[in-house]
């Protein structure tokens, strides 16, 4: 009986580990905390600052860039991987919002600071989830 229970728990654990793609980091909370602290921010800065305070703060932009690199959806060599970004933030298939996410990329692609661009893309895509579904 104990062996069966152990096998069930092992199966659940293996399924849980297989939920995320191979590029997905295991230490998400550590990365968030490190990037915030490296940029003189509290780990919960996104919950305590308004959008305007976040959008106009270069430390926030730097923390977003740091996190994007740590979360493997941005690299200096390959740039931004929008599919990975969408999956990372929203844990969903990119197919349902890929087209609209591309509109966000087009809107914000001229932003000079990569960290600021990633921040603005994140909030633009967040707005897609808040908006009612429309057929275009």
UniProtKB/TrEMBL annotation:
UniProt GO MF annotations: odorant binding
Signal peptide from the UniProt entry: 1-17
Record's keyword annotation contains Lipid metabolism: no
Pfam families to which the protein is assigned, alphabetical: PBP_GOBP
InterPro entries assigned: PBP/GOBP (IPR006170), PBP_GOBP_sf (IPR036728)
Classification via CDD domains: PBP_GOBP (cd23992)
Key words, A-Z: Signal
Protein name per Swiss-Prot or TrEMBL: Uncharacterized protein
Organism the protein comes from: Lucilia cuprina (Green bottle fly)
């Amino acid at each position: 009986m104990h062996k069966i229970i152990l096998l069930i728990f092992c199966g659940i654990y293996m399924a849980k580990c297989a939920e995320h793609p191979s590029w997905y980091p295991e230490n998400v909370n550590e990365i968030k905390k490190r990037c915030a602290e490296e940029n003189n921010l509290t780990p919960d800065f996104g919950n305590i600052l308004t959008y305007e305070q976040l959008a106009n703060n270069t430390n926030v932009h730097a923390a977003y860039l740091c996190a994007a690199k740590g979360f493997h959806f941005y690299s200096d060599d390959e740039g931004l991987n929008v599919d990975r970004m969408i999956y990372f933030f929203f844990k969903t298939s990119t197919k349902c919002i890929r087209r609209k996410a591309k509109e966000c990329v087009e809107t914000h692609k001229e932003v000079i600071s990569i960290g600021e661009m990633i921040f603005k893309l994140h909030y633009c895509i967040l707005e897609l989830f808040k908006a009612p579904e429309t057929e275009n």
